[in-house]
């Protein structure tokens, strides 16, 4: 059960130091005066603090200016020059990015991150020849980090998919990609995400020639065939792998994942059954069989696990209880849970047992068990928090006031707990009470100004459910600074650009997010933007993809209602 159910996924971060934030406020307040009269101008620390405050306020243009000031006066601080460059790139301020990059180049000539930023700026400015030269320098550097930086630049720095695909093709043709399987696989995956089947085929031909007999090559080929709608050929490619799943656990998992993506859950389970078995493989197999509604096979697996665990330890008892849950054999599940003797698994047993009691209709017992867990000082805070979150989840029926009561009790016991506040914000958003959702998210940010989850969730909510687009952009920009390659944040950024009427820019960002994360919400966003732009056939394609991923997705439903698609 997730502890922190995200609207827009991101991680918690530590709060800013209050004294420093205070100094930054002073710096920002002084910024309106001329540089000659600004007491902080010429002060590296002051400019840096002012820049950081501007970042935290979501004003990236101001932040870029301050950090450039700091870098200019830092007497060769490569770190400040790097920060100035990255902030300017995020702000879309190519002029300041070029100036900061020049400082960075002087202070750290030839560094991989600097070369990558240089290539990114060239891409942004449409200087494809220069970008190609810089990318080739990274790829031919001999440094294992070189190709990774080049991959990141192409995957996230290009203005659009056409530019990225064109340059990737040129790099393949020039022989710049190093003779490293992982590198070729990464760029093959990128071509696939760019929806360039011809380029993917060219890369695959290179991989086959360079690494004959490598099962990961066949796996990539199967994935490419599946992505292009050639499901039967994908199955043939997977079948040709034979016993490759026995080579390594990660390969077994990847093959099973491809079968799962094809909808072949039985084949996915059969793949996971190959080789050594442990708690993880048993759980995955059980989950696959449950989703396939194959109770006969699931029961056989349950018996198999019981047979190999004649004297089950606490972890195995917990696993058997979970499997019985999958089988909907709730009495057996409860028995397994109740026989967990102690240790770290004991609190987990109490939590899962409450869910089983709820399924058995013994709800008062479930509530009692959860209340006991919530008030038990002997268990850690995470488990007590989980008990509140589970109770709220189980009471999540329409506008059940009991759900709100659970969150309120949780916050009374753990004041200002971010996870509980976040969950309550989700509840308010689900009930269309946006002011209260906003209040809870802002409460998190008051405690932890760098909480990326709350920044992104609030920014997205304001963009999606209000007309406060400028404020939404500032919040999302703060999240972008912390995690520039987070697909959910990129989606939020694309969505607010769309709401601001910048459809072309929005489409670039949303496509980038979708290439990184095949999510129904992102697909629905792309579909809506395309529909508004009059590209209805293309929009329908993305709506169909969203339906295939999650037909009940709320963003998809709203988009379909809005467009009539």
Topology summary:
Elements: H1 18-30, H2 44-56, H3 60-72, H4 78-91, H5 94-107, H6 112-124, H7 128-139, H8 144-156, H9 161-173, H10 181-193, H11 197-210, H12 215-227, H13 231-239, H14 249-261, H15 265-272, H16 279-291, H17 295-308, H18 314-326, H19 330-338, H20 344-359, H21 363-374, H22 381-394, H23 401-413, H24 418-430, H25 434-447, H26 452-465, H27 469-482, H28 487-499, H29 503-516, H30 520-532, H31 536-549, H32 554-563
What does this protein structure show overall?
- There is one protein chain.
- With 565 residues, this protein is mainly α.
- It is built from 32 helices and no strands.
- The chain is globular, with a radius of gyration of 26 Å.
Summarize the structure.
The chain has 565 residues and is mostly helical.
Instruction: Describe the sheet with the most strands.
Output: none
Number of strands: 0
Choose one word for the global shape: globular
Termini separation comes to 35 Å
Rg, rounded, reads 26 Å
What fraction, in percent, of the residue positions are helical?
over 70%
Number of helices: 32
Poorly predicted sequence stretches spanning 5 or more consecutive residues: 1-41
Give the integer mean of the pLDDT values: 86
Structural class: mainly alpha
Classify the beta-strand content into a percent band: under 5%
């Amino acid at each position: 059960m997730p502890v922190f159910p995200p609207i827009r996924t991101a991680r918690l971060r530590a709060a800013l130091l209050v004294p420093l934030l205070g100094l930054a406020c002073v710096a920002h307040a002084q910024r309106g005066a001329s540089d000659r009269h600004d007491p902080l101008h010429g002060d590296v620390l002051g400019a840096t603090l002012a820049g950081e405050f501007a970042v935290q306020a979501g004003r990236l243009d101001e932040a870029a200016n301050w950090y450039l000031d700091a870098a200019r006066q830092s007497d060769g601080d490569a770190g400040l020059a790097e920060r100035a460059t990255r902030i300017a790139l995020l702000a879309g301020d190519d002029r300041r990015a070029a100036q900061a990059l020049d400082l960075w180049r002087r202070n750290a000539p030839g560094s991989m991150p600097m070369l990558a930023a240089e290539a990114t700026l060239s891409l942004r400015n449409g200087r494809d020849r220069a970008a190609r030269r810089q990318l080739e320098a990274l790829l031919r550097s001999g440094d294992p980090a070189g190709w990774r930086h080049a991959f990141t630049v192409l995957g996230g720095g290009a203005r659009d998919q056409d530019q990225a695909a064109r340059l990737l093709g040129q790099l393949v043709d020039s022989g710049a990609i190093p003779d490293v399987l992982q590198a070729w696989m990464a760029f093959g995956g990128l071509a696939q995400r760019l929806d360039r089947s011809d380029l993917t085929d060219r890369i695959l031909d290179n991989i086959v020639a360079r690494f004959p007999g490598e099962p990961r090559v066949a796996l990539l080929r199967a994935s490419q065939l599946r992505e292009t709608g050639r499901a039967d050929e994908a199955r043939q490619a997977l079948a040709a792998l034979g016993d490759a799943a026995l080579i390594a656990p990660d390969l077994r998992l990847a093959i099973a994942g491809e079968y799962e993506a094809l909808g072949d859950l039985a084949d996915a389970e059969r793949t996971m059954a190959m080789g050594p078995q442990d708690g993880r493989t048993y759980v995955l197999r059980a989950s696959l069989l449950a989703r396939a509604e194959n109770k006969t096979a699931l029961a056989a697996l349950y018996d198999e696990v019981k047979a190999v665990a004649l004297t089950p330890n606490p972890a195995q008892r917990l696993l058997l209880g979970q499997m019985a849950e999958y089988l909907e054999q709730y009495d057996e599940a409860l028995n397994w849970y109740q026989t967990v003797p102690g240790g770290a698994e004991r609190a987990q047993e109490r939590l899962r047992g409450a869910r089983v009691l709820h399924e058995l209709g013994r709800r008062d017992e479930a509530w009692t068990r959860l209340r006991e867990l919530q008030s038990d000082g002997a268990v850690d805070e995470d488990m007590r928090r989980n008990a509140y979150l589970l109770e709220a989840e189980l009471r999540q029926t329409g506008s059940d006031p009991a759900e709100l009561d659970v969150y309120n009790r949780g916050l009374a016991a753990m004041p200002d707990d971010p996870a509980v506040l976040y969950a309550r914000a989700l509840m308010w958003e689900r009930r269309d009470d946006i002011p209260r959702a906003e209040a809870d998210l802002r409460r998190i940010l008051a405690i932890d100004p760098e909480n990326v989850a709350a920044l992104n969730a609030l920014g997205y909510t304001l963009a999606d459910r209000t007309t406060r687009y400028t404020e939404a952009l500032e919040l999302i920009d703060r999240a972008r600074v912390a995690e520039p390659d987070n697909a959910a944040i990129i989606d939020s950024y694309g969505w607010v650009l769309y709401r601001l009427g910048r459809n072309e820019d929005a489409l670039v960002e949303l496509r980038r997010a979708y290439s990184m994360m095949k999510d129904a919400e992102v697909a629905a966003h792309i579909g809506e933007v395309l529909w508004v732009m009059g590209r209805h056939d293309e929009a329908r394609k993305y709506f169909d993809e969203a339906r295939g991923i999650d037909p009940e997705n709320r963003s998809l439903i709203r988009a379909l209602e809005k467009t009539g698609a």
